[in-house]
Amino acid sequence: MQKEMAYSFPDEVLKHVFSFIQSDKDRNAVSLVCKSWYEIERWCRRKVFIGNCYAVSPRMVIRRFPEVRSIELKGKPHFADFNLVPDGWGGYVLQWIAEMAGAYPWLGEIRLKRMVVTDESLELIAKSFKNFKVLVLFSCEGFSTDGLAAIAASCKNLRELDLRESEVDDLSGHWLAQFPETCTSLVSLNISCLGSDEVSFSALERLVDRCPNLRSLQLNRAVTLDKIANILRRAPQLVDFGTGNYAAELQPDVFSNLAGAFSSCKELKSLSGFWDVVPAYLPALYSICPRLTSLNLSYATIQSPDLIKLVSHCPRLQRLLFLIQVLDYVEDSGLEELASSCKDLQELRVFPSDPFGVEPNVSLTEQGLVAVSLGCPKLQSVLYFCRRMSNAALVTIAQNCPNLTRFRLCIIEPKTPDYLTLDPLDAGFGAIVEHCKDLRRLSLSGLLTDHVFEYIGTYGKKLEMLSVAFAGDSDLGLHHVLSGCESLRKLEIRDCPFGDKALLANAAKLETMRSLWMSSCAVSFGACKLLGQKMPKLNVEVIDETEPPDSRPESYPVDKLYIYKSVAGPRFDMPPFVWSMDEAVKILH
Amino acid sequence: MENSVAYEKATELRLGLPGIDEPAVLSSVKNNKRSLHDEKSGENGKSAQNETAPPSKAQIVGWPPVQSYRKNNFQQAKKSESECGGIYVKVSMDGAPYLRKIDLKVYKGYPELLQVLENMFKFTIGDYSEREGYKGSDYEPTYEDKDGDWMLVGDVPWEMFIRSCKRLRIMKGSEARGLSCSGV
């Protein structure tokens, strides 16, 4: 009887139903219902997301999902962004490409983040996938413009080429000319990361000319202001545009040409780029400002009054990223203006212009953020660098913005206390986790004791990612987080006095997370080995660039530790300074 | 090497102060094996600009958490604001395995530039004349200008040269002679 129920719908019907189910979570749930659903589902899964490229092997993915058209892979741990992961650590994509070349001839989309991509990998992509449409290399490295030339030349229906934040060896600007004249399919092109050598501008113009569906274009710094009008006039349908250099001597005809070109872009909603801004050219944007929902000025070295003027023309702004200058007058007033004019603001990011300076005359304080929290009730995502904070301010922010999903605060000097009371900032961050019930991502800073972790463990039930630096007093802090945060997937810790106890007591928790990073903490080599031996579903890797961890007593702390769940076993591409704690792997290199 | 006593001790969650058998608790920055001033540990030499960041205090690796491309970008901008920009151009020489980079802003004129090139690549440049270019050597210094054309170094006034020069190439042999013979 039960068997009949399972087969009451023909496979084709189930397949059709499943095709409406896009999210991985739902598809995973579907595959658990019964064996036949598992089978049907795996044959029709088209999109795979792998948050850690070492959690599973290419072969395993291919075996389970034979008909994938789109893959997303992430490589290095997040702290690689801040130079904490040594070069050569890993995250190579070549083996994935090689295996998929054989198994997925119809693969159309590859999205990579923090991976090492060589020219060889790019050439293999160009050669192997006849229907290739989308290549996103987010914060990747290891390739040159030669590899890009191969992609441009071979991928006849390329829709998206996005190289954001990647490090590219810029050998020649002529790779753009490799796009054949027949290529008219581009929808999105992001070359903002390319070096200061000139991109072949005439090739770029011709490409833009023949791609009527181009919606998103981010130029690189080498493209000068006078060239913008030419590009925009060829692509008035653009929705998302990143300028190159926005500096030039003010010339009336250049200005009016530019203003005219911008105003002809009736769909333009998002702007970025703006390296080296000459303020006199900002008014050229005024005609499109009322439509703008996203503005990234995080490279724009402009002064506060010009910023305020610009932003006051953008009432619909939902997303604002900008760079705060250390100036003579208070920058908070700029944020106050912003708070009064951009009521729809959802995301705010404020970057430090002088991260290493010890300037005492701070022009941006916690007041700016408090003002935005008061004026912008839809605020969901915050990244804020500043030099002072108070518990009172954090409590106010928490109460004003209960809808926060991402809160990242970086007080530049480690272990800075509440500047009013000199207390730790436990209560302030505690208020954040308590009031913001949907908080998914949190980064801490300032002076913090174990108490803040108690709050986080108690209230942070939806917290998925936590970043901790220079905080806590003892293992109890780590224990609170590991035992309390039910949804925790990624935990990254640096320079905290967390040792073996909490880690070993919560070893099972680690199997439910994607990864744990701990550097400059107090976890002993002995504890790492123990974890490696007792937890076969985890890869426990010790990183030490100076000497092998077993050349010292077992009680000595390891330099860096990266633990992640994996069904693929220990990896084969570890460099000499990474040691696997897996029993089966020889520890001595 | 598994030691059951150590295992029990390791998994025992205590709330008191650390016991005597525990390793010294790290003071965060001091025990960092990397020197405090070496902000680029582990990085290759690509982001040379980072080295010029003014170390007003000891810098901690990876702190504050600002991504390298942002730091590079800002420092380039800061330099150009305060010093009106260094003009860095790549210099290649035919037959040399790798390129060099120099800051044209640093030199006061052609004689100084040519001297530097001679020292850098260990060769001699001939004597320059407006009519015949460089005579007396197999090498000729050339540059690519803003329009993408290859020009002989020395033909235009120095100020105009440093504003329009995109890269330098020390040509060798017949190709070089061809350039000088082609006249103005």
TrEMBL record, chain A:
The keyword Disulfide bond does not apply. GO terms for cellular component: nucleus; SCF ubiquitin ligase complex. One of its GO terms (biological process) is pollen maturation. Keywords: Auxin signaling pathway, Developmental protein, Nucleus, Ubl conjugation pathway. Pfam families: F-box_5, Transp_inhibit. GO terms for molecular function: auxin binding. Pathway: Protein modification; protein ubiquitination. Residues 9-50 form the F-box domain. Its main location: nucleus. This is Protein TRANSPORT INHIBITOR RESPONSE 1 isoform X1.
UniProtKB/TrEMBL annotation, chain B:
Residues 44-53 have a biased composition (Polar residues). Coiled coil: none annotated. Its main location: nucleus. Pfam families: AUX_IAA. InterPro entries: AUX/IAA_dom (IPR033389), AUX_IAA (IPR003311), PB1-like (IPR053793). One of its GO terms (cellular component) is nucleus. Residues 28-60 are annotated as: Disordered. It comes from the Eukaryota. Residues 86-173 form the PB1 domain. One of its GO terms (biological process) is regulation of DNA-templated transcription. It is found in: Nucleus. Keywords: Auxin signaling pathway, Nucleus, Repressor, Transcription, Transcription regulation. Belongs to the Aux/IAA family. Homodimers and heterodimers. Aux/IAA proteins are short-lived transcriptional factors that function as repressors of early auxin response genes at low auxin concentrations. This is Auxin-responsive protein. It comes from Gossypium hirsutum.
